[in-house]
Amino acid sequence: MAPTSITTFFEYVHLAASQVTGDDALPTVGAWVYKANPAVWAPMVIQIADGSFVLYYAATSAADSTAHCVGVATSSTVKGPYTPLSDAFACHLDLGGAIDPAGHHHPDGSLYVAYKVDGNNRGNGGTCNNGVPPIKSTPIMLQQVAADGYTKIGDEVQILDRDDGDGPLIEAPSLVYVDGVWFLFFSSGCFSETTYDLSYAYATSVTGPYTKARAPIAPLLVSGTDGLKAPGSACAAKDGSKIVFHAWLGDSISGGRGMWTAVPSISGTSITL
């Protein structure tokens, strides 16, 4: 398994000052993971009220090695090592799996986890395996959790889904609350093509309904913005004051993806970068 690295940012605006510690934050994965090819993706860490840390991640399911589930691990320190829970947090294997987990601190102190149901994993081919009808749903789900960051409270709810304007999918949710409004950053298009982008939706309740921002104010980032190619998969600071996102390092995804930063300007229900 490739290690899940921790990056420390000494100064947010200068990524040249970033340092990969070399520590493996998640040296072991949950018992539910397919060990022959765990394919760990998209780790995200939050700090909870008792001062400890919760890491959410996606990995291949031992129950179905063609799909990912979302798992949880905990640590007393942000660098880890994180101890995984034995059971998966969310799977939806019949719908294609679950990926891209993101924790959210509600202003009332409660906690939520957003994630994507990986419907295009069960698609019929074409762009990101979901360009051939019938097109599969790729909904963003929201699950309330207890103070420990993983014990579920009630059922998950769907807060967003793809439509024809999004292409094959939406994914990579990141949820923030600013001045009475919840903003859900998400990406659409296909990560391996220049259609990939960064957009957002907004709501006055954490569970929605969410309204997608549309042209001309969205998407926020597309190929060509500041010379970027396929920008997306943003992760926002708790207060929405900063985001990080990835984009291609070369002319195609085969050249790898690097991390960029941006400072959103939020007014009412609008975001600009």
Tell me what you see in this structure.
This protein has strands at 5-8, 19-24, 41-47, 53-61, 64-75, 83-84, 98-105, 111-117, 140-145, 157-160, 170-178, 181-188, 197-203, 211-212, 232-236, 243-248, 257-262, 265-267, 270-272. By secondary structure, the protein is mostly beta strands. It has a 4-stranded antiparallel β-sheet, with no helix packed on it. It is globular and about 45 Å long.
- Could you give the distance between the termini? 36 Å
- In the sheet with the most strands, the strands line up as 3-4-5-6
Helix content: under 10%
Largest sheet: 4 strands, antiparallel
Strand content: 35-45%
- What number is the mean pLDDT? 93
The number of helical runs is 0
Uncertain segments are 4-18
What keywords describe this structure?
four-stranded antiparallel sheet, about 270 residues
TL;DR?
The protein has 273 residues and is mainly β. Helix content is 0%, strand content 42%. A hairpin with an 8-residue loop joins β12 and β13.
Secondary structure layout plus pairing:
Blueprint: E1 5-8, E2 19-24, E3 41-47, E4 53-61, E5 64-75, E6 83-84, E7 98-105, E8 111-117, E9 140-145, E10 157-160, E11 170-178, E12 181-188, E13 197-203, E14 211-212, E15 232-236, E16 243-248, E17 257-262, E18 265-267, E19 270-272
Antiparallel strand pairs: 1-2, 3-4, 4-5, 5-6, 7-8, 8-9, 9-10, 11-12, 12-13, 13-14, 15-16, 16-17, 18-19
